[in-house]
């Protein structure tokens, strides 16, 4: 039995590279707008500028609290308006202050959701756009079934669609190192980190595409999660180009979510921000095995911890 299963897995994995159809991905960007970076860059919105030239749809998840992170609230308000008014952006709420649901609990979290839409709701009306998506900070949907069901009911009542992701590559940690080296004028090390981010991210795409082939026998519409940060301001264009070379087409979040994989039940009741690929699985041992097979980012995290200690 075990050998049969093993053989099937190997066979399906090798089929992965020949699978028919075109791979698709929706790019989603969290923690928008990055007001601190905006100030550092003399009020230039570099990621937005780059996206303007890329002509692909992106979904952005907004923390309105970001507006007050620097002294230039009026300018930051203008920055948020720029994000909202672009015709290629789909809008999502990401809470006001990026709180962790399982940590703060239902009352505080739902207040944070409501507070997080005050300005965006008005701006979206002004620019004739919808605000119907929500992404959980840290992808923490609660640490029990009860907690999860409670918040799902709240979101439904408030006409929010919770947004999953399938691929992420710890861009926030790569970004921490990238910014550290740039601030220390070490361009060579910063470039090493950027190159490593691009390589690892492509490996993650390959890995989750193989999993899709193995689990569903086809390409699925992937959802990539990354952040509004320096690394993506400098590298997202290259990443998109490299994905295009691998035949990816870039779809809106609306279109990606039409893929029926997203109709599956989320069986995961812990607080950790794992891929929805794993949340759809019921076999815990299999989940563990596949998670272990992910591209290795331990070297980067070792460096992250070392630099983090140094800075503190
Ligand atoms: Zn976030």
What does the model show?
With about 300 residues, the protein is of the alpha/beta class. It has one domain (about 20-310): TIM Barrel (Alpha-Beta Barrel). It is built from 15 helices and 8 strands. The protein has helices at about 1-15, 35-40, 45-55, 75-85, 100-105, 105-115, 120-125, 145-155, 170-185, 185-215, 230-245, 255, 275-280, 285-290, 300-310; strands at about 25-30, 60, 90-95, 130-135, 160, 165-170, 220-225, 250. Strands 1, 2, 3, 4, 5, 6, 7 and 8 form an 8-stranded parallel β-sheet that branches. α8 (about 145-155) links the parallel β4 (about 130-135) and β5 (about 160). α1 (about 1-15) packs across α10 and α10 packs across α11. It is globular. It binds zinc ion.
DSSP strand count: 8
Each distinct ligand = zinc ion
Radius of gyration: 20 Å
| Overall pLDDT metric | 94
**Secondary structural class:** alpha/beta
Overall tally of domains: 1
Helix percent band: 40-55%
User: How widely separated are the two ends?
Assistant: 53 Å
CATH homology group: Glycoside hydrolase/deacetylase
Order of helices and strands: HEHHEHEHHHEHEEHHEHEHHHH
pLDDT < 50 stretches: none
Q: Enumerate how many helices there are, as a single number.
A: 15
Q: How would you describe the shape?
A: globular
| Range of strand content | 5-15%
CATH level-1 class: Alpha Beta
Question: What CATH architecture label applies?
Answer: Alpha-Beta Barrel
The profile of the biggest β sheet is: 8 strands, parallel
CATH topology title: TIM Barrel
